[in-house]
Design brief:
Blueprint lengths: L3 E3 L11 E3 L4 H14 L4 E7 L2 H16 L3 E8 L3 H14 L5 E4 L6 H10 L8 E4 L6 H4 L8 E4 L2 H15 L7 H17 L7 H4 L5 E3 L2 E5 L5 E3 L2 E6 L2 E6 L7
Helix pairs in contact: 1-2, 3-4
Length: about 250
Amino acid sequence: NIPVIALSTDSSVAGRGIYLLSFLPESDVNRIVDYSASTGKRSFAALLPENAYGNVVEAAFKQAVARRGGRIAAFERYGADRSQMQQAARNIAQALASADALFLADDGDALPAVADSLTSSGANLKRVQLLGTGLWDNPRVFSNPALRGGLFAAPDPAGFRSFAARYRTKFGQEPVRTATLAYDAVALVAALAKTQGGQRYTPDVLQNPSGFAGIDGLFRFRADGTNERGLAVMRVGGSGAQVAAAAPRSFV
């Protein structure tokens, strides 16, 4: 009966009393699909890796598109084999005429090869809106011309920049990107201990629907132990990513 605040991107380890304060792929997918739908995108294609991450984002993507009343015009998975990726890219390229958004969810090291496979297969990536997840926050993505203008969901970078500046002043070195998660976990526990008395770690308090403000923006815990985050939508540019849609200031 001791609640746990854990850090994992695997939502299957969450449960009653085990709350994840991490960046979950499902949050990225929901945010980017919701934003795309709000801008008029209705027909989606997706090209995803054949791995555990791809399994998670596939389920979230299909649910999010259905929830927003969209349609999936084409869907392909690819493995590590180059020829398999090329075949999947050809199938997507042939189907893009009936799609207005293309969802690509791989890490920054693999994504340029995926984009190259699509363009070499005849896909015109400029006529569809490219969509991605927080894994796009990578210099190799920003330096790839084919991915320019793509949108991905991620925490507003201003929070981490401010945190990193304070960290450098205090410790004389750069923080790892996930340092904010540990900081927010400890800060939350301390704040609840100070303000909530004997009820500080009860489900009603931890599952406050208004959520909490962290370094990386708003977050709240669900009853199943997963979390929901208030994410920004970022646009890929040549020198980095710029905010295309601000993170929400409150949960509606």
